[in-house]
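Section: Multi-chain targets

For targets with more than one molecule, the full set of components is provided together so that the structure can be written out for the assembly as a whole rather than chain by chain. Components appear in the order listed by the source. The example entry contains two components.
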Amino acid sequence: MMTTGKSDTKIKVNGLSKVFQGRNGDVIALNNVDLEIKQNEFVCIVGPSGCGKSTLLNIIAGLEKKTSGSVLADDKEIEGPGEGRGVVFQQYALFPWKTVLKNVEFGLKLKGVDAVTRRKHAMEYLELVGLKEFAHSYPKELSGGMKQRVAIARAFAAEPEVLLMDEPFGALDAQTRAQLQEELLNIWDNKKKTCFFITHDVEEAVLLGQRVVIMSARPGRIKEVIDVDISYPRTQETKLDPRFVEIKNEIWSKVYQEYLAVKK
Amino acid sequence: MQGEVNTESVIQVQKEKQKPFWKRVDHRVMVFLSLVVGILIWALLSTIPSVNAILTNPVTIAKTFVTELSNQNLVTDIVASIYRVLGGFFLGLLVAIPFAFLMGWYDIFRSLFEPWIQFFRTIPPIALIPLVIVALGVGESAKIAVIFVATFLVMVVSIYQGVRNVDPTLIKAARVLGATDKDIFLEVVVPASFPYILVGVRLGLASAWTTLVAAELTGASKGLGNMIMEAGLYFRMDLVILGIILIGLIGFVMDKGVLWLEKKLAGWQEVSK
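Its structure, encoded as tokens over all components, is:
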């Protein structure tokens, strides 16, 4: 990849804070967060619930306003949603009145891509997630795992440079989850995107990410960033790798400390 | 081998037998049976002289239906009633949809309109009839106006509810795909509230019918409500009952029509688990 004077930093979060005004006073959701995500990097973020992971993702997505600090995408301040940042939600968020194909096409339709091109493009992504035969089904006819595959295809088909995923596999059973983890790694390898992935499953974070960010709760801060020095392609068997187990345990004990802190 | 297969089929036959007979009979057969038994009981009851004076027997009513149909009066009444119902209903729908969307989408419209709608909703539209008659006379416009008010109030509330209930995650999902406010309104809010519009239509039609009969009872030259009223004055109980049955039937058919439409147009809905 050419670096024509520009840094290869895709997302740069600097001194970001977010305060929610609640009925019982202000709640600090994020406190002075610094984070850098490189071009085509896969970064996972773990932390106890309520640590502000989702808030951070929503601010990067442009769905929520920050209180102070700066959040840059390609060195430009993020003003609102869109502009090359796609999101996959835990609740799938498929449009139930649209067929699978129409769901996947939607981002392209909004961009004004003509019908023939966007259909071809959408079918390519449906094939990638193995749902080509379901193109004309409605979401209600699909299982949870299939719905999330459609949501992933929809996010990828809009060709964003950055994909933000908010616990996308959180509602799925272990089997489907393992399958989708591998599929996601395949697509990521295939399409080269920058991925920011929220999970509360440490094993998932280590399996997917090149780096794992650990957040601490109340107020949400970044506690530590750990490199996962295990080569790709990774599969479910990677989980047996001694290095994998070592990193997983290290992260797990740090997250557990945070969990205990929250409990107190 | 042979034995195994046999046991299996025996078990299956037994399961079939264990099911009580009313679970094995088709739903439609049961509905038909219920209707036949109902009409039989009616016919039996009407053989008692004191009952027969009010509850005419089904055969007489069928005969009345045929004679009334042949002298055109009945057709005129039915057409007049349906015209009023649909006139008032479609006017109500036409006004309710923009109102509901404005209220759901803009806070200022909600603040301005909601108190009025909530207030008028508690008043039975029939109470407005004297006022409407003074203002518009006893002609068609008076009836349509009353039905319009009744249907509008019912429909605006249920459609507004639908606009408010749009899943915020769907709006977020559209936004991150690059949707503008206009896209979100047309591509998310409108289709998401569509099932609520159909619920509103069903409620609206039902209230249109009830209001119609009330409006016609108070004074009209034709219509099913008027027919019942006049027949009552001449003690023609067969006509009264015929009118009641027809009102029920037409309402039933309209409701089924909307249900059919819902299945066709909003079949994508996830059935709640």
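Chain B has two domains: 2-45, 58-265.
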